[in-house]
Design goal:
The chain is 20% helix and 25% strand. It is an alpha+beta fold. The protein has one domain: Double-stranded beta-helix, CATH 3.60.130. The strands form four sheets. It has a seven-stranded mixed sheet, covered by helices on one side. The protein is globular and about 50 Å long. Bound molecules: succinic acid. The site of succinic acid has 8 residues, from strand 14 and strand 15.
Length: 284
């Protein structure tokens, strides 16, 4: 079986066909890893995986990440079901720009999302390239940003007052708000990717709540500018889903944002994460 790769603009995102994710040779796993590092977001159409097969594929890329604040599917503590029903009034899960679980001391390297039911309209996922966003800044600003440490927290969505905590019966996903969401974790604002060695702008509007070295107002202004910069159209790839498509993305250099636009239709996907390392910035 030969693997075919169709890359998106600027090589950010690629569709991979000619491979069966339930039956991979070691060399194919290596090939997928290399493609993932190069393109940051990979999609694989026509992959029929049950929960066990999704878990097994995830483990071929690395250990499972930790999944807080959302109840997993029964009998699979590492699989979340991203579900929205036709009549659900709350905003879609993941509908603001973020990098998955960036508030963890060791946030996940990868997220894997497998589409079970995709609406005929809407429900795309947008991805933003953190390498390109950083590279587009002036050299002076790059140098300045490298001196800063960003503060990350899960409080906006997952504290007891968080915006995901509400919704109650109207929400088909079970959110588990907690006081642990108030904890703050520091990460470099510019991150060196541990495998590619490239540098990425690494802040996101959901989980980055401040900057260690700056007063709150100054930090808020700078973060607002960086958030807006990092999701400019020139850095964004819009992913259109198909049922049975599986997507992998690299949280170490990519942000994403789920889109709505499918009220009246059901959307169901299953998600795992692959464990990552503590973010660092290599300056030498
Ligand atoms: C997520 O943020 O993990 C969900 C993305 C999506 O449903 O498109």
């Amino acid at each position: 079986m030969s693997v075919a790769v169709a890359a998106e603009a600027n090589d950010f995102g690629a569709t991979v066909s000619g491979v069966d994710l339930t039956n991979l040779h070691d060399s194919q796993v290596e090939q997928i890893r290399a493609l993932w590092l190069k393109h940051q977001v990979l999609s694989f159409p026509e992959q029929r995986l049950n929960h066990d097969q999704l878990a097994a594929f995830t483990l071929q890329l690395g250990a499972f990440g930790l999944e807080p604040y959302v109840a997993p599917v029964r009998d699979h503590e590492h699989i979340l079901e991203i579900r929205r029903e036709p009549d659900e009034a709350v905003q879609p899960f993941g509908a603001s720009w973020h990098s998955d679980w960036s508030f963890q001391p060791e946030p996940p390297a990868a997220t894997i999302l497998h589409a079970k039911i995709i609406p005929p309209v809407g429900g795309d996922t947008l991805y933003a390239d953190g390498y390109a966003a950083f590279a587009a800044l002036s050299a002076d600003e790059q140098d300045y940003l490298k001196t800063l440490r960003a503060l990350h927290s899960a409080r906006r969505p997952y504290s007891h007052q968080g915006y995901q905590a509400g919704g109650g019966d109207q929400r088909s996903m079970t959110i588990l708000p907690s006081d642990s969401a108030l904890e703050i974790v520091e990460h470099p604002l510019v991150r060196t990717h541990p495998e590619t060695g490239r540098q990425a702008l690494w802040v996101n509007a959901v989980y980055t709540v401040g900057i260690k070295e700056l007063d709150e107002d100054v930090a808020s202004q700078l973060l607002a500018r960086l958030f807006a910069h990092s999701i400019e159209d020139r850095f964004v790839y819009r992913h259109r889903w198909q049922t049975n498509m599986l997507t992998i993305w690299d949280n170490r250099c990519v942000q994403h944002c789920a889109q709505g636009g499918y009220d009246g239709h059901r959307r169901v996907l299953h998600r795992t994460t692959v464990a990552g390392d503590r973010p660092f910035l290599r300056t030498a």
